[in-house]
Specification:
The complex is a heterodimer of chains A (352) and B (312). Chain A has 352 residues and is α/β, with parallel strands linked by helices. In chain A, strands 3-2-4-5-7-6-12 form a seven-stranded mixed beta sheet, sandwiched between helices. In chain A, strands 9-11-10-13-14 form a five-stranded mixed beta sheet, with helices on both faces. A three-stranded antiparallel beta sheet of chain A has the order 8-1-15, with no helix packed on it. In chain B, α2 packs across α7. Chain B starts with 46 loop residues before the first helix and ends with a helix. The chains are: A alpha/beta (352), B alpha/beta (312). Chains A and B meet through β3, α3 and α5 of A and α4 and α5 of B.
């Protein structure tokens, strides 16, 4: 679709890499929102500081509820709080927020369509704590539940915007958040939307593109880095940021895919059931035939290690993996270009 | 659990204090706008009235199950007095909440609500039928209660959430009545919720535990040992009473006593899934009773005769 930027709007600007990082953008956003929203209550499953809600607890102790290590009960309590007119935000790691209390989420939250916000930290292989701590199927589980909004945000700006955006959703939401130092990829006026995916960067679409990189969460930064390298080698690339995996902005995804020769999805999650599956479903149902490569955990658990970067490299989630997938998908001649290894100052963030 | 007056570590205002949270501008997601005109309000009901209400619930349950020829009648038979005591002597519609944790018991709630004027009695005829809001295993679409769930062991968490919400929203007067079954005690979530309610001293929460010693695979005590039930709850910070579950007046009295307790309370109601229907065969499966037309007629006749006798 030469020159067509109607779907998805104009490309959203991104800040230059490497990105500076901030601490506790989620905790600050929730606490800030709670100042004007007395109906917001905060539940913690024994991971208060880790989920940044020590900030909330300090400022609003009357609205902070320790549920302890009892996720099933925490979800059930949250459902009843929501039924009573409150807006509960429930916090723990992504594994304990989704796979452990799945039946409770179904029956106490999703089926009644209650405005419970389930916030799961430490997505995918960002935790070196082994499969017990790695939420690699949380998006798939939550995406399968009717009425559940599923978000996997990329940076501190989106995190804050997402908190405000989901506060008034009539139904439930699952928000997946990186823990610790959070990069700032987008400027403060980033056009976050619960209904629209965004093209990123300044690459013009006229004439179509070789590869459409469709990414969410922690894989947005590698997708941007890969796009920069590929463009340097003469490959036309579109980067589409999909912070809301459900409901999927199908129109924007299809527009990006239609203009490309190959579609690469990238997610810090199993390739089964998450962003890659959602994009595949959308393309297949639209009859849009394009080669599709899914970057993600290839139907495998990721064993423990000292560092997350090791796991990203071992399990195929690096900038280089995105480059390689696009290069191969486009049948480019010769070896693929190499991803840079930028020298980072303390506090800066660059993808593996 | 500390025994002194403050609630350590809860971070919550004492019950009855002004809540931080506004109360008037936030809509309640009540499942039903309950009719406040009810014969069941207050505690004026006599022992005879409650006994009669329990049999009316039994009769309604028989009539609801009869068209299918089988169903969750045993649950209504064992819990009839508990529902009679709550709906007939304690429940203040619009103020208090009712949780029916095992959704298979929901016919007892439908029957009790119909008998006390909370829902249209004509609705009961649709129980369990295609397209009906009165599903055999309770769903979100039923007119009562405030919460029920067919996936067992989850109701106490919801009940604790209701009681906590009342506290957070500055509504200390509301009570939450939670009907549980003894088989559910096998689910770990019940004990998560019991620990939570004990810690937060949710004293406005009262559990009616139908100890009918019946579950799908047979008697509960033949599958897991759940005794000593009262000691377990007491150890979790609850007041516990062991009762004859077919003494409606006794349950009503215990409900009244629990209203003034400083801790959540559980009433362990010892019951039988065949109680009140002598016509049932002795080997009737308490979880899912067969009720062919002849037996249904006999059951209606037995209950009608007893109700007529007690009306005089």
């Amino acid at each position: 679709m030469p020159g067509d930027r109607g779907v998805g709007g104009p490309a959203a600007p991104v800040l230059p890499a490497p990105y500076r990082t901030v601490l506790k953008p989620y905790g600050r956003a929730l606490t800030g929102l709670a100042r004007s929203r007395p109906d917001i209550v905060c539940l913690s499953g024994d991971l208060t500081r880790q989920c940044e809600i020590d900030l909330f607890q300090a400022e609003f102790p009357d609205r902070f509820i320790h549920a302890g290590m009892a996720e099933a009960n925490m979800i059930g309590v949250a459902g009843a709080l929501a039924r009573s007119g409150l807006i509960p935000f429930v916090h723990t790691f992504g594994v304990f927020a989704t796979r452990r209390p799945l039946d409770q989420i179904v029956n106490a939250v999703a089926y009644p369509g209650l405005p419970v916000r389930i916030v799961g930290f430490m997505p995918g292989v960002s935790s070196p704590g082994g499969p017990s701590h790695q939420a690699i199927e949380d998006v798939a589980l939550m995406r399968a539940l009717p009425g559940m909004t599923v978000l996997d945000v990329a940076d501190a700006t989106e995190t804050a915007q997402a908190v405000a955006a989901i506060a008034d959703l009539p139904g439930p939401a699952y928000l997946r958040l990186k823990r610790g130092e959070i990069p700032v990829i987008f400027p403060a006026d980033h056009p976050f939307s619960l209904t629209r995916a965004q093209l990123l960067g300044d690459e013009p679409a006229a004439g179509g593109t070789g590869a459409a990189l469709v990414a969410s969460g922690m894989m947005v930064a590698p997708a941007l880095a890969a796009a920069s390298v590929l463009r340097g080698s003469g490959v036309r690339v579109t980067v589409l940021n999909v912070p809301v995996i459900k409901p999927l902005d199908t129109a924007t995804v299809l527009a990006a895919a239609a203009g490309a020769q190959v579609v690469i999805t990238a997610e810090n999650h199993s390739v089964i059931g998450g962003l890659g599956s959602a994009v595949a479903e959308a393309m297949a149902e639209a009859g849009l035939g394009r080669p599709l490569r899914r970057i993600g955990l290839a139907d495998t658990f990721a064993d423990g290690a000292l560092s997350a970067p090791y796991l990203f490299a071992r399990y195929g989630l690096t900038t280089q993996h995105v480059i390689d997938a696009a290069w191969a998908g486009l049948s480019q001649p010769g070896p693929p270009p190499r991803a840079p290894s930028p020298a980072l100052r303390p506090g800066d963030y660059a993808p593996v | 659990m500390s025994s002194h007056g403050v609630r350590p570590g809860t971070g919550l205002p004492p019950a009855g204090s002004a809540s931080y949270i506004a109360t008037d501008d936030q809509p309640e997601r009540r499942r039903t706008a309950l009719n406040t005109e009810t014969s069941g309000q207050g505690s004026e009901a006599s022992a005879a009235q409650l006994r009669r209400l329990a049999d009316r619930i039994r009769l309604r349950a028989v009539q609801m199950v009869a068209p299918q020829g089988l169903g969750y009648l045993g649950q209504a038979l064992s819990a009839a007095e508990q529902y009679a005591a709550v709906y007939g002597a304690a429940l203040r519609p619009g103020t208090d909440r009712v949780v029916c944790s095992p959704g298979h018991y929901v016919l007892a709630a439908y029957a009790a609500a119909a008998e006390t004027g909370l829902i249209d009695q004509a609705l009961l005829a649709s129980y369990g039928q295609d397209g009906s809001s009165l599903a055999a295993i309770g769903t979100e679409h039923g007119p009562v209660p405030d919460y029920t769930c067919g996936s067992l062991g989850q109701g106490l968490s919801a009940a604790a959430g209701f009681a906590l919400a009342d506290r957070l929203r500055g509504r200390p007067g509301g009570r939450t009545f939670a009907f549980l079954s003894d088989g559910e005690l096998q689910e770990g979530q019940v004990w998560e919720a019991a620990m939570f309610a004990g810690h937060y001293r949710l004293s406005r929460l009262t559990v009616l535990l139908d100890a009918n010693n019946s579950q799908v695979d047979g008697p509960v005590d033949g599958i897991t040992t759940i005794e000593p039930i009262a000691a377990k709850w007491q150890a979790f910070g609850w007041d516990a009473a062991d009762l004859d579950g077919h003494d409606a007046a006794g349950i009503a009295a215990a409900l009244a006593a629990a209203a003034g307790a400083a801790r959540p309370a559980v009433l362990i109601c010892r019951t039988s899934t065949r109680h009140g229907l002598d016509c049932l065969p002795p080997d009737a499966d308490g979880h899912f009773i067969k009720l062919p037309p002849g037996l249904a007629d006999a059951a209606v006749a037995e209950l009608t005769a007893r109700l007529d006798r007690h009306a005089r």
